[in-house]
Write a structure and sequence with these properties.
The protein is mainly alpha-helical and about 190 residues long. Helices cover about 55% and strands about 5% of the residues. It is built from 9 helices and 3 strands. The longest helix is centred in the first third of the chain and has 24 residues. The protein is flat, with a radius of gyration of 20 Å.
Amino acid sequence: YCIDDSYLTLKLADNLEPSLKEKELDKLYRSLEMPLVNILMLMEYAGVRVDVDFLKDAARQMEEKIKTVAQKIKSCENLIVFTGAGISTESGIPDYRSQGGIWDKFRPVYFDEFMSSRDSRIRYWEQRLDMEKSLSVSKPNTGHLSIARLYELGFLKTVITQNIDGLHQASGIPDDAVIELHGNTRRVRCM
């Protein structure tokens, strides 16, 4: 069973803010249905039996879960979202630990090494320049924009993130509502 994150986002938004223009939502839903249709066609072409009843049941269960999450968000006084590398991979930023991630290419440079060794500082900046290739072209994705929408609607108080990419701020969440546990690549301080 496949479901697109964008679809989940829209269904959640629909439950949180039913005043969204129906035509606008309908247009967005239809644009998201096409990838699922393509997946089903490919599965049938490959000889994979598609159990439509299973899909309908899974969709019904997902609807129930989305409504439950929306109700919890509505009733929450201090909603906080915690994010890690996974939210930014859709924006083209590799995570650190997965295959093909940053630590596959580079060994981490720890703070004490950085402060005590010129060679470690050079190695760090080489890594940082390599990371800049993806960071410089990355833009907030559906996940970031959905979190920003929760903030805009007044549901979300704070985002706590392990990410260093600044994409939560780029999505519209103000700096003072984002806690960056590992800093931000868009700011540098000389030590």
